[in-house]
UniProtKB/TrEMBL annotation:
Membrane-traversing stretches: none
PROSITE patterns reported in the protein's UniProt record: HTH_CROC1 (PS50943)
SMART domains: HTH_XRE
Domain of life of the native organism: Bacteria
A GO molecular-function annotation: DNA binding
InterPro entries for the chain: Cro/C1-type_HTH, Lambda_DNA-bd_dom_sf
SUPFAM superfamilies in the cross-refs: lambda repressor-like DNA-binding domains
Domain HTH cro/C1-type: 14-62
Protein name: HTH cro/C1-type domain-containing protein
Organism this protein belongs to: Anaerostipes butyraticus
Length: 121
């Protein structure tokens, strides 16, 4: 098994990322991905790029002699949904909108209830 595959597997394990997620993000068939990650099938440079990109990293990150996996605890609650990589500005904005929506869900639901009651009168 290559250094790249060992490091990717360690990263997936530490970060609790499922192969299904990688398959969906990369378009690599799940069975093929499984064979690649177990070392049963050689990995191409294209697949290396796809996997690294899906994890929010560059190929060199997984080939580095000083490879270190970030500790999940380093990420605050606002980042946990994006632990597979750094969020884009657009993702950050969407996440903030979702947080505000969830924080105000009681007000939204009570307003809905009030409008429904008005329409029944």
């Amino acid at each position: 098994m290559t250094k790249y595959i060992k490091n990717v597997n360690a990263y997936l394990s530490q970060m609790k990322i499922k192969q299904t997620y990688i398959s969906l993000k990369t378009g690599i068939n799940q069975k093929k991905l499984s064979r690649i990650l177990t070392g049963a099938q050689d990995i191409t440079s294209i697949d290396m790029e796809k996997i690294a990109s899906a994890l929010g990293q560059k190929v060199e990150f997984f080939l580095s002699d000083s490879f270190q996996i970030p500790v999940i605890d380093e990420y605050g609650p606002e980042k946990i949904a994006f632990y597979a990589g750094n969020p884009t500005k657009k993702q950050e904005e969407l996440a903030q909108k979702l947080v505000k929506f969830v924080e105000n869900i009681d007000e939204i639901l009570s307003a809905d209830y009030r409008f429904l009651n008005i329409s029944e009168e």
